[in-house]
Specification:
7-stranded mixed sheet; 618 residues; binds adenosine-5'-triphosphate; 31 strands; elongated; alpha/beta; 15 helices; binds magnesium ion
Length: 618
């Protein structure tokens, strides 16, 4: 495939290359990062300088905030960062961005770690090029860098690049200006470095109330980029942190912490979503200031805290999926108000939910890859693309099975006459996979009574209906041709038992199989060896493509039919299914044995991942 010739989203989406790969290619060609050294763990400039040349050609990172469960949008970021590192002989760090003490919990850390590994990047953690043979999880916590961040803030103060501001939040907002109006300087802006240092240490030591003052970067209150108008870099917040406990009562702001985290980890390509584009100048500013040497009033100089070249930030359009909500707040609301069964409800767009629904890591990776990486805007992707990725990856490998979802009994009236006994069972078999003989055969029994789909019988067939109706012949798949005689009805006038006669010498796979031509083939399960199973059919959780568009309350467009539970009968090969094993139920689509509720050999519970083709909205 040739390189993209245009920057349009369509062109990018269709090509394996993208602007981030091009940037990496250019850096590798120029040797931008070739001289870097790696100190074996995150650290400041001197600690890395003392290390060996970095064996990782690039370093990327996936930096989730552990304040919720990962969702399908994160799958894209995970894929992008880990696959780039893998392709280019680099390393990708899993960094928990836990600088905000308030909303973070161990439960989220655990589930994020589990999901990253499930998506297929577990081996990555155990393969540290710097120390062969040593398991080195490239897993880091931003809160481990609090000491450095604090030290860096003092460094900025001493260099005259930061000051303690005692304006109220309202005053700060009012003096920030807006797009058309420059901001105005704080009356506290010209404090001496000594005074700023004293006040900042008082902040750290708990001598001031929450919100009484903040530390701000001293940049330019008239900058056309509002993010450069002396952004806050530290605030006072008395909150217990999940990692550092009550050690700190001041916490760094995200926009200050993030470039530092990247630099300490020697990240080369820091990839984030487009809304951070306007933050890039501040990202660069922080890293430049901290790389510069500091000259103290007494004339002593200190080398910069960080080494060149600094990490660079790249922004791409975030992934949005039709009929899906990814806001953590709204997902929480769905769980807490019991609109779904939990964070891993198979209808949830969380990775835990998608996993339980039966989507595979391969499908999610393919979906992420196909959705493209662009810098021109957010990518809106149809949910059907996820299902297509699932089918494309699962169809070649999923074992087949027959299942009857809406069972009605079919009785073969001439059975005893043909086989000599009403109890006779005729063994039948089918390939586990039609194109993979090495996967073997599945066995099941055809008897006098079988289960068929209720919808396969019509007393008066509509035009084009080739399945069971009085007088018509169809094949029981992998079995015999039968001729329909009619049906007994229940009180509601529905067929309760369908009657048929078997036509001799038409068994599939025998020389006479084609002696009778039929237009219809139906799936079935024997009454003798069929197994009861609970089958859950899922549909979109929302009826609208953009459930929260234009400020609409997304709860008003919940799909009332997003879950249908059926009591099905499945072929005996499925009793051995283990949780999370996936199958193609012939005619019905792809199903997974439920991760939590399916118990092999005892209680069979299958979730439909998706149908055989995209039928939604048709
Ligand atoms: P949310 O808005 O759902 O809370 P977030 O961006 O705040 O998501 P983080 O935990 O901070 O969540 O995200 C970790 C990484 O995942 C970030 O680099 C972020 O850019 C990326 N990410 C989050 N959502 C998406 C998305 N929809 N598409 C692509 N990347 C995403
Ligand atoms: Mg975030």
């Amino acid at each position: 495939m040739s390189a993209p010739t245009s920057n349009t989203p369509a062109a990018d989406a269709a090509k394996p290359s993208n602007f981030i790969r091009q940037a990496i290619d250019a850096d590798l060609a120029k040797g931008t990062y070739a001289q870097r050294r790696w100190g074996g763990q995150p650290g400041d400039g001197p600690s890395h300088a003392a290390g060996a040349p970095d064996p990782a050609r690039i370093r990327t990172r996936f930096p989730p905030e552990p304040n919720g469960y990962l969702h399908i949008g994160h799958a894209k970021s995970i894929w992008l960062n880990f696959s780039l590192a893998q392709e280019y002989g680099g390393v990708c760090h899993l960094r928990f961005d836990d600088t905000n003490p308030e909303k973070e919990e161990q439960e989220y850390v655990d589930s994020i770690r589990e999901m990253v590994r499930w998506l297929g990047w577990d081996h990555h953690f155990e393969d540290d090029a710097a120390r062969p043979g040593i398991k080195q999880p490239h897993e880091y916590f931003a809160s481990d860098y609090f000491d450095f961040m604090y030290h860096a803030a003092e460094y900025l103060i001493e260099a005259g690049h930061a000051y303690v501001d005692e304006q109220t939040p309202e005053q700060m907002r009012a003096t920030r200006g807006d797009f058309g109006t420059p901001g105005t300087n704080s009356p506290f802006r010209d404090r001496t470095a000594e005074e700023n240092l004293r006040l900042f240490r008082e902040m750290r030591d708990g001598q001031h109330a929450d919100g009484a003052m903040v530390l701000r970067a001293k940049i330019d209150m008239a900058s056309p980029n509002i993010n450069m108008r002396d952004p806050t870099i530290y605030r006072i917040r008395r909150a217990t942190h999940h990692n550092t406990g009550d050690k700190w009562c001041i916490y760094p702001m995200y926009t200050y912490a993030h470039p530092i985290e990247d630099a300490l980890e020697q990240i080369t390509h820091s990839i984030c979503t487009l809304e951070f584009e306007d933050q890039r100048p501040f990202y660069d500013w922080v890293l430049e200031r901290l790389s510069e040497p500091l000259t103290r009033p007494d004339g002593n100089t200190e080398a910069g805290l960080l080494n060149a070249p600094p990490p660079r930030q790249y922004e791409f359009g975030r992934l949005n999926v039709g009929h899906v909500i990814t806001s953590k707040r709204k997902l929480r609301q769905l769980v807490e108000e019991n609109h779904v069964g939990g964070w891993d409800d198979p209808r949830m767009p969380t990775l835990a939910g998608l996993r339980r629904r039966g989507y595979t890591p391969e499908a999610l990776r393919l979906f992420a890859e196909r959705s493209g990486v662009t810098k021109t805007g957010d990518a809106w992707t149809d949910y059907a693309a996820l299902d297509a990725a699932l089918r494309d990856t699962l169809d070649p490998i999923a074992p087949r099975a027959m299942a009857v979802l809406e069972p009605v009994k079919l009785v073969i009236e001439n059975w005893a006459e043909v086989f000599g006994s009403a109890d006779h069972l005729e063994p039948c078999e089918a390939p586990v996979h039609p194109h993979r003989p090495e996967m073997g055969q599945r066995q099941f029994m055809l008897g006098r009574e079988v289960w068929i789909e209720r919808t396969d019988y019509e007393e008066t067939p509509p035009k084009g209906f080739f399945r069971l109706f009085p007088g018509n012949k169809v094949r029981l798949k992998y079995g015999y041709v039968i001729e329909c005689l009619g049906a007994a009805k229940d009180e509601a006038d529905c067929a309760s038992v369908v009657r048929a006669n078997l036509i001799k010498d038409t068994k599939s796979g025998t020389p006479g199989a084609d002696s009778v031509k039929v237009k219809g083939v139906i799936t079935w399960v024997g009454v003798a060896d069929g197994q009861p199973a609970e089958v859950r059919l899922y549909d979109r959780l929302f009826t609208e493509e953009q459930p929260d568009a234009g400020g609409r309350d997304f709860l008003t467009v919940l799909n009332p039919n997003s879950l249908t539970t059926m009591q099905a009968i499945v072929e005996p090969s499925l009793t051995k299914a283990s949780p999370e094993e996936r199958f193609q139920f012939e005619r019905h689509g792809f199903f997974v044995a439920d991760q939590h509720e399916h118990v092999s050999g005892q209680k069979l519970v299958f979730n439909r991942v998706t149908g055989l083709r995209d039928s939604w909205g048709k």
